[in-house]
Specification:
200 residues; mainly alpha; 3 domains; two-stranded antiparallel sheet; two-stranded antiparallel ribbon; 8 helices; binds zinc ion
Length: 200
């Protein structure tokens, strides 16, 4: 889904080309045509190609068919997505922050935002699609929260760049509250099962 603001910003990028419309109504039509792209990433890519390789702003009909063709090719490629099977949606389960009850919801598959099919191996066992992992005191993923390097991690990081740093600040506060001497926490001061094996 493309916001009007984003389509406008991309429309402005075309203003260096010849035949760019300066009439307000024609600009509105241009924005409307640009909103026909299947995602903001796809629109940005389409505009990249125009500003890099064209000298004239193409007519609306060319833009509409160009974006439709780009969309068709992408949908075709995404049929190979092993996460959503080409449907574009995955079912996610979580807890409502409102009443704590379990909820299920349909979520747009990450393949739609990236325009690339996702392989099952990237349907991430490490972060379960949350995009970050860790935060545990002991065990396989002991240590501070980290961004996962899977497709979900990249997506989440783009949307909420401060998330992991904030989670770690909160985590460190909890650890400090739990122990009086953080510098001793790592090795000696606690019984074995509560020892902290991760890195700071
Ligand atoms: Zn998918
Ligand atoms: Zn992951």
């Amino acid at each position: 889904m493309i916001s009007k603001e984003f389509a406008k910003s991309q429309m402005e990028r075309l203003s260096a080309l010849k035949r760019f419309p300066f009439n307000a109504e024609a600009k509105r039509d241009l924005v409307k045509a640009l909103m026909g792209a299947i995602s903001e990433a796809h629109l940005a890519l389409y505009i990249d190609n125009l500003v890099n390789y064209e000298t004239e702003c193409p007519p609306l009909s060319t833009i509409r068919t160009g974006l439709a063709e780009q969309g068709r090719q992408t949908q075709e490629a995404l049929k190979a997505c092993e996460v959503c099977g080409g449907s574009g949606f995955v079912v996610v389960r979580g807890r409502s922050t409102h009443d704590g009850l379990e909820v299920t919801a349909a979520k747009l598959c990450a393949c739609r935002s990236f325009g690339q099919p996702i392989k099952r191996e990237h349907d991430c066992p490490r972060c379960q699609g949350f995009g970050f992992y860790g935060g545990e005191i002991a065990g396989q993923y002991a240590g501070p929260w980290k961004w996962c390097d899977c497709v979900y991690g990249r997506e989440k990081r783009e949307r909420e760049p401060e998330l992991v740093a904030e989670a770690n600040t909160a985590r460190e506060k909890l650890i400090r509250r739990a122990i009086s001497k953080p510098q001793d926490f790592k090795f000696k001061s606690l019984p074995q099962e509560e020892s902290y094996y991760g890195e700071y």
